[in-house]
Amino acid sequence: MSSITGWKRLNAAWLAAAALLLAACGGGGGSGNIGVGSGLGDGGGAATSPLASAEVQKAASPQAEEELPLSEHADGTGPAARFVEPGAMAIDRFGNQFVIDRMPDQDTVIRKITPEGVVSTLTTTASGGPDNLLRWSGAPLGGIAVDAQGTLYVSNYWNAVIEKIDAAGVVSVLAGKRGEQGLRDGIGDEVRLDMPMAIAAAADGTVYFVEYYQNKVRKIAPDGAVGTIAGGGGWGPGDNGGDGVGADARFNYPSALAVDGQKNLYVFDDRRVRKITAQGSVTTLAGSNNALRPYYVDGEGAAAGFGYQPGALSVDSSGAIYLADTGNNVIRKVQPDGTVSTFAGAQYPSVVLDSDGYNTPAAPLYQDGGAQVARFGNLRGLAISTQGIVYAVDAGNFLIRKVEAGNVSTLAGRRSRPSLSMNP
């Protein structure tokens, strides 16, 4: 590994770790670049003027929060449920949501939320620890997906494998070999993966995933064969650079992924929504990675501006893409022609300047109501049902939110914040 490549990877790893830390603390983290010029803007223009903390706090919701330690965890219905560190989300054809979460002992678990807001923690017929819960010990999961048959898939990035979870909660390795990182296509345990992150599943069971550090998009066919769809490594050059076919395409740390009914893929990388056809042709649908462009603006194609910190992507039956724009604390909608609008949430930056002029996570805001006045805090997961209902993981407020008919409501969880007495 060259010294330049090593530095880039170390820097990216630090940024990813910082984002996870911010998420755990209820701040505004997310995959992407955190620091000077970190995806902040006033609603329509310059990328150089993040709001001051005092201005953000003026918009704080009147709805109450309670002080609870992050270790609080409970199954239940609606506000009786508690989440510890909710992250990526997937949804099945019945509208059940599956969310990656943690336990008080920091084991990773999967929570199921029904359309009625009933929250449970998945169990297993195999040995799963206390209460036979389905647990991953010391192995954070990067993403989750579900296919048309209800089979779950998770990207175990720390152990460099994609895992499959059947209806009985039994986990098996779908691709890769536990603990052995690398970059090799093939089938079964001859495959090597390098910290797979975002993941998506097509109706026929084809599984797609991104390798954040390798800047590649790969797939697992129903027969288990693993191949690379697009991305030749390296960073995409210039303004909207990096489009191309297969290995000629370039990505800049792809961090969110979705698939539509025609097996077109949608990827978020470097403030852009990219489209990958089934043939591996990559184009930029919306946004720009030009640092001088606005970080929050609705518009067409490259004129649109996104924050650096995406939480997730989802796509509906019409081909419209929904993006958890974590850097701006809103949900954006991208039409198939690249036209971008704000679907839900009143924008405010997830990072603000403190009194010393340094970037710091903004306090997460919260408000239910009309889509244009609602507030989210640190969006980490997103999914859309076959009925067109959008669900979002509001990690900053430890909630599952629901957007339906132009209205935002809280489906499950109770707004909370870390106890001041909690040890970091």
Keywords:
424 residues; single chain; mainly beta; five-stranded antiparallel β-sheet; disordered C terminus; 7% helix; disordered N terminus
Explain the overall architecture.
Helices cover 7% and strands 34% of the residues. It is mainly β. It has a five-stranded antiparallel sheet, with no helix packed on it. It has a five-stranded antiparallel sheet with strand order 11-15-14-13-12, with no helix packed on it. A hairpin with a 5-residue loop joins strand 7 (143-146) and strand 8 (152-156). It is globular. Mean pLDDT is 83; it is low at 1-62 and 419-424.
- Please give the count of helices: 2
Report the uncertain regions: 1-62, 419-424
Straight-line distance between termini: 34 Å
Give the beta-strand count: 33
Estimated share of beta-strand residues: 25-35%
* Secondary-structure-derived class: mainly beta
Mean pLDDT: 83
Task: Provide the spatial order of strands within the biggest beta sheet.
Answer: 2-6-5-4-3
Radius of gyration: 20 Å
**Share of residues in helices:** under 10%
Overall, the morphology is globular
Q: Mind describing the biggest β-sheet?
A: 5 strands, antiparallel
Helix and strand layout, with pairings?
Elements: H1 3-24, H2 53-58, E1 66-67, E2 76-77, E3 89-91, E4 97-102, E5 108-113, E6 118-121, E7 143-146, E8 152-156, E9 161-165, E10 171-175, E11 186-187, E12 196-201, E13 207-211, E14 216-220, E15 225-230, E16 244-245, E17 256-259, E18 265-269, E19 272-276, E20 281-287, E21 299-300, E22 310-315, E23 321-325, E24 330-334, E25 339-344, E26 351-353, E27 359-361, E28 369-370, E29 379-384, E30 390-394, E31 399-404, E32 407-412, E33 416-417
Parallel strand pairs: 1-33
Antiparallel strand pairs: 2-6, 3-4, 4-5, 5-6, 7-8, 8-9, 9-10, 11-15, 12-13, 13-14, 14-15, 16-20, 17-18, 18-19, 19-20, 21-25, 22-23, 23-24, 24-25, 26-27, 28-32, 29-30, 30-31, 31-32
